[in-house]
Specification:
By secondary structure, the chain is α+β, with helices and mostly antiparallel strands. It contains eleven helices and ten strands. The protein has two domains: 145 residues, no CATH class; 180 residues, Phosphatidylinositol 3-kinase Catalytic Subunit, Chain A, Domain 5.
């Protein structure tokens, strides 16, 4: 069982990572910062559609500041979604600004609404944390999902990742008559492989969403991480494998019921091959990112020592023991995946 006992400490963005972000056009000036939003006047609890406490609070600003804050947030939205084309925000207004006081980064969630058709969207403003940025970049490069985010000084802006929160999916959807159990179990195996190979931790059901796509014959599922704070920080190998979180047990039990060990290995190999293809197609960008990780401090020495030992034991490969930091452990993990992919061809 995987358990994280303490909140992860945030890490600052180093000079080399800042240069990488600038080269990838992730670093852009913004009209408002995370610190500006913390100067709200009051707040009240926000409840979901079922009347449960959402663990978010809606914040209010004085009228004199509220209009300026709303205009700045609309401009941020235009930069995030349309490269600064302000024509896209002509009919938008900021309906709500929420804060999650329990999150590591105490993120703000912004709800923007089109006044013509009531269509809405969200985006997030957070304290920038190097771990999270490495996680976002690795997700963008190595997963089937594209990630849109921006950094300005110590402020991080992220798009909303749509999907049904994993915990809600397990509680309200898994026993439905239309659930395709084998496809869901297959996707979880692939998700488990993606997170472990690139060492993204803490993927219990609260930290991922499930995107459901109906097809003309079947239903497809895509599990997407939404929390990247635990990228390559913890020392226990099981923290990086969603199969060891008890919150995910209902999906895991489906896999045990419906799949043989050989089937699981087949799906793992499929995902490994896809990741290998993404590595090859983005090799230079990935190399620059891993070089940043290797030169950076994103974990504690005792975590590095524990993880490289456990990875060496798990794979039976002493190359992990030569790693001096988390970046080198991730690099070794990806290198092993490429080697296995070449041997299969």
């Amino acid at each position: 069982m995987a358990i994280i006992h303490k909140k992860k400490i945030p890490f600052p963005i180093c000079k080399r990572l800042r240069s990488y972000l600038y080269e990838q056009e992730r670093e852009k000036p913004l009209p408002i910062s995370y610190g500006d939003l913390t100067r709200y006047d009051s707040s009240f609890a926000l409840y979901d559609s079922r009347g449960n406490d959402s663990l978010w609070e809606t914040v209010l600003f004085p009228d004199s500041e509220g209009r300026q804050v709303q205009q700045a947030l609309k401009e941020v939205y235009s930069i995030l979604t349309a490269d600064g084309d302000v024509s896209v925000i002509e009919h938008l207004f900021v309906e709500r600004i929420d804060i999650c006081i329990y999150g590591n980064t105490r993120p703000f969630r912004i709800r923007v609404v089109n006044r013509i058709n009531d269509n809405f969207d969200y985006f997030y403003i957070k304290n920038a944390d190097a771990s999270r940025i490495y996680g976002l970049e690795l997700e963008h490069i190595l997963s089937p999902n594209r990630i849109n985010y921006l950094v300005s000084d110590n402020t991080l802006v992220e798009e909303h990742i749509a999907g049904i929160p994993g915990d809600q999916f397990i509680e309200y959807y898994m026993n439905g008559p239309d659930i395709n159990e084998i496809r869901l179990a297959k996707e979880f195996v692939k998700f488990n492989e993606r997170t472990f190979v690139r060492l993204l931790g803490d993927m219990h059901s609260n930290n991922f969403v499930i995107d459901i796509t109906p097809d003309f014959e079947e239903t497809h599922y895509r599990i997407r991480a939404i929390d990247f704070d635990q990228q390559s920080f913890e020392g226990k190998r099981t923290v990086y494998m969603p199969q060891y979180f008890k919150q995910n047990n209902p999906i895991i039990e489906l896999g045990i019921k419906l799949m043989t060990p050989e089937t699981v290995r087949q799906y793992q190999r499929e995902e490994q091959s896809l990741i290998a293809s993404r590595i090859k197609s983005s090799r230079y960008r990935l190399k620059d990112l891993i070089d940043c990780m290797i030169s950076d401090t994103i974990s504690k020495p005792r975590h590095i020592k524990t993880l490289k030992t456990e990875m060496a034991e798990y794979y039976g490969d002493d190359r992990f023991l030569q790693c001096g930091n988390m970046g080198e452990i991730v690099k070794t993990s990806l290198r092993m995946l490429l080697e296995k992919d070449r041997l299969r061809k």
